Amino acid sequence: MGIDFCFGNGRMRIANMKLFTDKDIQDHGCVAGAGSLYADRTELVTDMLPWQKRGLQETATGYGGKLTTTLKINFNDKLYRIYCTCYSNNGSCWFIAKGRKIFVN
Q1: What one-character-per-residue DSSP string does the chain give?
Q2: CA-CA distance, 26 to 87, in Å (whole number)?
Q3: CA-derived radius of gyration, the chain
Q4: DSSP-derived pairing of the beta strands 10-14 and 3-7
Q5: Is residue 1 in a domain?
Q6: Going by C-beta distance under 8 Å and a sequence separation of 6 or more, which residues neighbour residue 58?
Q7: Is residue 27 part of a domain?
Q8: CB 3.0 to 4.6 Å from 80: which of 1, 46, 95, 104, for a disulfide?
Q9: What is the pLDDT of residues 15-63, one digit of tens each?
């Protein structure tokens, strides 16, 4: 069983990508209204943007509040880009679905 998604000008079939749903979300506990879910790297898909393929980074320091990652997650039959908030040596990965921030552990 595979899932078809469009990337750029073509379609890609992802055979073993997990479909996450609202049932997988737990209350975050620290951020009001936010959720949290656990995902293994193998359950995500890599989709690099052109500037990422060239080895560039989004900021000069590599730190920021909404850094674009190369990863996407299949949540409720839709692919969402995963972002990272990174300051010092700590980062939090998350995506926004229907206006709700969902952290990915």
Answers
A1: --EEEEETTEEEEESS---B-GGG-EE-SSSTT-EEE---GGGSEE---HHHHTT--SSSSS-EEEEEEEEEEEETTEEEEEEEEEETTEEEEEEEETTEEEEE-
A2: 25
A3: 14
A4: antiparallel
A5: no
A6: 64, 67, 68
A7: yes
A8: 95
A9: 567 899 999 988 877 777 788 999 998 899 999 999 999 999 999 998 9
In a domain, 96, yes or no: yes
Which long-range CB contacts under 8 A does 90-95 form with residues at least 24 apart?
Answer: 91/67, 93/69, 94/34
Number of domain units in the chain: 1
pLDDT at 1 (0 to 100): 40
- Structure token pair of residue 85: 């908030």
CA dihedral 26, 92, 100, 10 (to 10 degrees): -110
